[in-house]
Write a structure and sequence with these properties.
This protein is of the alpha/beta class and 332 residues long. Helix content is 37%, strand content 14%. It starts with a strand and ends with a helix. 51% of the residues are buried.
Length: 332
């Protein structure tokens, strides 16, 4: 799993540009398999919900459910003689990275998934790290490999990640797994996009024929969530820093997914009445508050369903890491 903890990219000087999503504070569902997760989102062509309810999608409550599902799967696999294992590699002493790794290993413990922790000093060399990844690739006890980013200065993260066996790439971000996703035969789906699809399913949002506007084209969120929506027959507009007239595009959307890292970029009156709004952005304001990319209170007055920040997409990401590790353990 690859988790970026650097701040989000800057937005254009006039405010209409969009940063590259997935690089803000760490944002994140577990079912029987990837296809089941994706198709939990509505696929019919029924009428979209009408505005007025403004239902808040509780990511924390959904995460509790999906972790319980993961625990049942782990127990069943253990009975069959399969012990799912996740290797976690943390280099250096970055405080945020330590918190994120601790949360992930705690989640593994909660569901009975074995984790192999490799906490290395910042002085670790590139060759030492690559040798470790090679050993983890060859270790049959390890089904998934998580490298916590960013790595200390002087280390080549791209070269390191490229050495991970695609069958253990539980983040789903290596070229082979990205290609499989876009070709319609996914092995692993990146964790946050899969969490987004679970939220759409919980909202009962019809996808087939719907117009979805995805704001942000990162490899972590924007592009894979667009692929998942297209696979469910949605019509997707993928917006980025050169997109013209973003407000008009958002106003036409049945589904809005914001993943940029720009506080309050999407204002309330952009939202089409009855739309579903998924806010992936997590931004810390100078006063310490965490907010998303969407004006929550304004958008809630028009949306049929909306995720809060924090407490929306974020809690599902780790659950999806568990899901992908279980998929790696079973080869499904």
């Amino acid at each position: 799993m690859i988790t970026r903890v650097s701040s989000a990219a800057a937005i254009g000087a006039r405010g209409e540009g969009l940063g590259r999503a997935g690089k803000g504070l760490c944002p994140l569902c577990v079912g029987s398999d990837i296809s089941a997760e994706v198709t939990q989102a509505g696929t019919g062509q029924g009428d979209l919900p009408q505005a007025g309810a403004g239902r808040v999608l509780d990511g924390k409550a959904i995460a509790v459910t999906v972790r319980a599902e993961a625990a049942k799967r782990v127990a069943a696999l253990r009975q069959a003689g399969i012990v799912p294992g996740l290797a976690v590699v943390l280099v250096g002493d970055d405080p945020a990275s330590q918190v994120y790794v601790r949360n992930k290993t705690r989640a593994c413990d909660e569901v009975g998934l074995v984790h192999f922790d490799h906490r290395l000093p910042a002085t670790t060399t590139q060759s030492e790290l690559e040798a470790l990844v090679d050993r983890l690739n060859a270790d049959p006890r390890v089904h998934g490999i998580l490298v916590q980013l960013p790595l200390p200065a002087g280390l080549d993260s791209a070269a390191l990640l490229a050495r991970i066996d695609p069958r253990k790439d539980v983040d789903g971000l290596l070229p082979e797994n990205i290609g499989r996703l876009w070709s319609g035969a996914p092995r692993f789906v990146p964790c946050t996009p899969l969490g987004v699809m679970r939220l759409l399913g919980e909202a009962g949002t019809p996808l087939s024929g719907a117009h979805a506007v995805v704001i942000g084209r990162s490899a972590l969120v924007g592009k894979p969530v667009a692929a998942l929506l297209i696979a469910q027959n949605a019509t997707v507009t993928l917006c980025h820093s050169h997109t013209r007239d973003l407000p008009s595009l958002v106003r036409s959307a049945d589904i809005v997914i914001a993943a940029v890292g720009k506080p309050g970029l999407v204002v309330g009156d952009w939202i089409k009445p009855g739309a579903t709004v998924i806010d992936v952005g997590i931004n810390r304001l100078p006063d310490g508050r965490l907010v998303g990319d969407v004006d929550f209170e304004g958008a809630r007055q028009r949306a049929a369903a909306i995720t809060p920040v924090p407490g929306g997409v974020g809690p599902l990401t780790i659950a999806m890491l568990l899901h992908n590790t279980l998929a790696a353990a079973t080869g499904t």
